[in-house]
Amino acid sequence: MSGVQAEWPLYEIFVRGKRGLNHVHVGSLHAADDEMALRHARDVYTRRNEGVSIWAVRADAVAASSPDEKDPLFAPAGDKVYRHPTFYAIPDDVPHM
Amino acid sequence: MPHVHDHDADHESVYDGLTGGDDSQWAFGTDFEDPLAGVDTTIAQGVDASALAAYCLMLGDDALVYSHRLAQWTSNAPDLEDDIALANIALDLLGQARLLLARAAAADPAVVPALPDGSPVPPEDALAFFRDEAGFRNVRLVEPDNGDFAVTMARLLVFSTYRLALLERLRDSNDPVLAAIATKGVKEVAYHRDYAGRWFLTLARGTEESRRRLLAGLALVWPLYDELFRTHHVEAAAADQGFGVDPSGLADEVGVVLEQVLTTSGVERPEIAQTGAVNGQTGRGGRHTEVMGRLLAEMQVVARAHPMGLW
Amino acid sequence: MTASPQVSAGDETELLAAFDAVIERHERIEPRDWMPERYRSTLVRQIAQHAHSEIIGMQPEGNWIARAPSLRRKAILLAKVQDEAGHGLYLYSACETLGVSRDELTRMLIEGRQKYSSIFNYPTLSYADVGTIGWLVDGAAICNQVPLCRTSYGPYGRAMIRVCKEESFHQRQGYELLATMMRGTDEQRAMVQESVDRFWWPALMMFGPPDADSPNTEQSMAWGIKRDTNDELRQKFVDMSVPQAKALGVTFPDPALVWDEDRGHHDFGQPDWDEFTQVVKGGGPCNAQRIAHRARAWDDGAWVREAATAFAQADA
What we know:
The structure holds three protein chains of three kinds.
Chain A: E1 10-16, E2 24-30, H1 34-45, E3 53-58
Antiparallel strand pairs in A: 1-2, 1-3
Chain B: H1 6-19, H2 49-71, H3 80-107, H4 123-129, H5 149-170, H6 176-205, H7 208-221, H8 233-240, H9 251-265, H10 291-305
Helix pairs in contact in B: 2-3, 2-8, 3-4, 3-6, 5-6, 5-7, 5-9, 6-7, 6-9
Chain C: H1 9-24, H2 37-62, H3 71-96, H4 102-110, H5 128-145, H6 154-182, H7 186-205, H8 217-222, H9 230-248, E1 258-260, E2 265-267, H10 273-283, H11 287-300, H12 302-315
Antiparallel strand pairs in C: 1-2
Helix pairs in contact in C: 2-3, 3-6, 5-6, 5-7, 5-9
């Protein structure tokens, strides 16, 4: 991984649009820490709409199980929502990896 | 095989979604029209209309010029998330500027620059784009170029701390329009201060490089600090008549808030000579820094080329 | 460090059959599904190119934020360019589900190893261009993108639904700006026509080369990544735009543009494909400038991103 600076980790963002509803996954973003993730989520996904509840969860902290998805590459214990950037060869020749 | 035949239906429904009237995902999409539409603009008893207009220009110009600067970060920020955040702040301030300029024009039409007969340019735009530099009443703090992200965060922290203290008091204005603008603005500017404070702390404690840049940024911004609390005679009148705030009364509160952020960040309050006045006048009196003329030249160029233009 | 997934030939056949069955049923492929390596790399290429287009596309319009001629237009334009940052962000996130980080994608853009839409290598030279980009460029983008809301890869399709909703607003604001200017002065009307003349051909190029010269189209359509051919979309765009131009009171600079009763479509001339090739290869009017701008912003921001990382780690 030489030459790659530490990228801000990926967060999954869940928003509850109004009281009485569940939080719903709306997308992801990068942030250095939890507080920045919430702030960014407010700017990016709610356009600073007051009164909206936001959860920000680090993507690598989400345990996932999806029997439907045919993936032989992950042991169940190491299952994550997203593939890891270094797991596959990048298309093209990428000198930095 | 239920999925085979929904091909076209699916396709159409997506187009329907595009042309439907729901703009709720577009936070700013429904709010671009006449900023004072439907608002009662009657002036309270005992309020001098020309003083009210002059005061609205001061607060409006602060927001307009600073919004212009912050918007220059667009496509230049350290990451996409902060590009979006800075644009949000610029949009908030632009919204405040529009309301305040429109209020100024409604209170005293004499402040609006004359345009050719039949010009469709609305008053808020006549004020923003056809006023000469000496007619602008913003503090000089908002004028200089952005500099790097550290300078930007230092200035945003100082400006938003000042403006939040001001708007909190302005909520009690006896001018209902100013009170309403302030009530809305407090929520927005509280967020701006929060954003800047968090970044200030992050840069102060991040790396050696970020700390060095932050200290240099604060030193660049600081010489225009005291001007924020100088009372112009319009501001004194505004406070006397109950529609505005005397900025000299904000100095302590702003100082305390900044001190908290500086202490948490391990940063000393700069001891730097303050930028002087020109024959006793500063930004509120229409005396600006050298970059102001270039800022306005760029901002006004298209509008001024088309005084009869419809946009 | 790159781990190579070890899958036996027998497994692969079975996995491919399952994958094909999902595509066949018009269902979505999700990030953790097995997928053929070429499907993955084609998606990475297409989504990244799309994300880069949004981010580079901020520049030509951002060029006019400081000079917007009314406060209302300034607010609209700033919000629009901000949306494009958001679209880029959604799309980079979709691409990240395929195992490529945003840092890596940005580096590939800056180093010229991935492309973006050639339209953004044209300069914006008057305020009317803001309107024309909204109307024609975003309009062409919508033609390209609406079908992608049903693309076979789930995260891409979901990102596109958000993007398309906002793009429709963009197109409307562009058209509304031009319509307003057309009600203004003679100079403004001339400005609109000049801008439309300048952007018409580049807008047609946005659909890519003619089908006969589009090497990736067939496989992409089979996989449900792409839903219509370049020429089909281009025809649709021309048919859509002609009545809009008429309502606006402008013309398109194409003498061959005429309604064909038999086909039920407009006939139209071909863009200068040599110019297209030149722009795609880096020789357009603004290629170097756009990349240099993006590289500068990215490099200038490095110390900020590092500071936040250092702060978060010290804080943790």
